[in-house]
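Thread amino acids onto this structure.
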């Protein structure tokens, strides 16, 4: 279980306990948090689960894989240092305290 803070583009924060094994995207989707659309359902095929990772967490996440990097090219206003697709980040205890910020829009 990890407590994850999702911050909408307008600054609204949602602090959610997300079970291990889910993805960061599923934690948002299952709690109806606005700003993560996840149109493809987590198949790394849409880029609408894009979020910016808090700088303190960027290096603490599993490395980005090629498929995610390729799909991120289609996301809206990516930040090369902080952008990730949240469907590709599996939740573990190690992510307790993670903070992600949603972009202004998805695609
Ligand atoms: S939900 Fe489609 S790429 Fe993440």
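Threaded sequence (107 positions):
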């Amino acid at each position: 279980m990890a407590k994850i803070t999702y911050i909408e583009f307008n600054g609204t924060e949602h602090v959610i306990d997300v079970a291990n094994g889910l993805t960061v995207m599923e934690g948002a989707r299952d709690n109806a948090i606005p700003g993560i659309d996840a149109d493809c359902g987590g198949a790394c095929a849409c880029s609408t689960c894009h979020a910016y990772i808090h700088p303190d967490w960027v290096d603490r996440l599993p490395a980005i894989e090629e498929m995610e990097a390729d799909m991120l090219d289609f996301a809206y206003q990516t930040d090369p240092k902080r952008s990730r697709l949240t469907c590709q980040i599996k939740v573990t205890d190690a992510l307790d305290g993670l903070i992600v910020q949603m972009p202004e829009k998805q695609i």
